[in-house]
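Project standup — Tuesday

K.O.: blocked on the structure for the chain from last sprint. Re-posting the sequence here as requested.
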Amino acid sequence: SAVTVVAAVAITTAALDNGLGQTPPLGFNPWNCFGVDSRGGCKLVNPHLPPPGCHPFNESTILSIAEALVRTGLRDAGYEFVNLDCGWTTGYRNLTTGRLIVNREKFPHGIAWLADQLHAMGLKFGIYASASKTQCCSRKYGPSANDGSYGHEKTDADTFASWGIDYLKYDDCEPFAESYKVMRDALNATGRPIFYSVHGPVGAEAVGLANAWRTTSDIDNTWGSFVKRAVLNDQYAAHAGPGGWNMPDMLEVGNFFDPSLGNAESRTMMSLWAIAKAPLLIGTDITLDRDPSDSTLDILGNAEVIRINQDPLGEQARLVHTSGASQVWAGSLDGGHRVLAAVNGDNSTAVDVTVDLSALFGEATFVARDVWKGETWKEPVSGTVTLKVDPHDTLLLRLEP
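H.V.: unblocked you, prediction finished:
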């Protein structure tokens, strides 16, 4: 089958003035692979783990992930944040100080100690809180649980700064809208640089409020889930740029378990998140002993893809054409370079995608580099090109004038 494209691409930027997030953050978050919801269910059922197919994250899990980031080279590729998600508290606060109580069964040495360990590895450390009375996963403790940060923003910001926190994920969980701004100001008042990522305000209302904002509901490890979120995220492109990024949730790269399509689906997700300039937060267990045919670590660590994500222009590529199950995305990079992604949504048949480069980028000739193959095409490209894309895969091109 064939798809033909004629479209145009547009540009804008925005920023939060706290000096952070000039490029999207790279790191790890445990929720997509180790998350356990308020009913005790696995966020991800991993066929490579014994039943029930998941285990909660704790101190040893986080340290193992950090060691794996260093050992695999992913830290040196740019993945510097190791973040906690919901599940690190007891669900309650100290009645005297009002401070959050760390779950010492999961984190026996405490949070400040863990931050020190990660910093000593050359990593940064992130934590989770919510703009509500109770954190999402703490609802299991009952109606008296009070570990939400609403009304405790200053106390929590001061606590996080004292622990050496570098990143805050501030979730909704039946949120109080005013809490997002109060927490932003409380973080800034600590004097410690803390990247501020929110789930709640989005687009125009998040600009000037946060360094990143969720644009979608929670993702899962299916093709339909991440492609839908990439498309939803596209509508907010005009609001993103250095200092403030659209975030269509965390990566599921490495969590696609179909042996014939898993690598292709991971490449596609990585491509779409990279060109969207989305935060790249790994959500798969990188400590697993994977089959040699599993390309997860190579996909996550691909330097050319990361370079596109970290491009200093900070422009989010746009969805410029959809035909059937196929998509074309295009955008600008620094130095007059362009990026083009052709996505095949068919899970069984390769497709030919025909793209009119002049309609997208004007009358110009480009040197094309296939980013995933690491190959520069011998002949320059201009005008109309036809691209063959394998099932559930993406052809990602960097175009240099």
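K.O.: great, moving the ticket to review. Residues 6-13 have pLDDT under 50 and may be disordered. The chain is about 25% helix and 20% strand.
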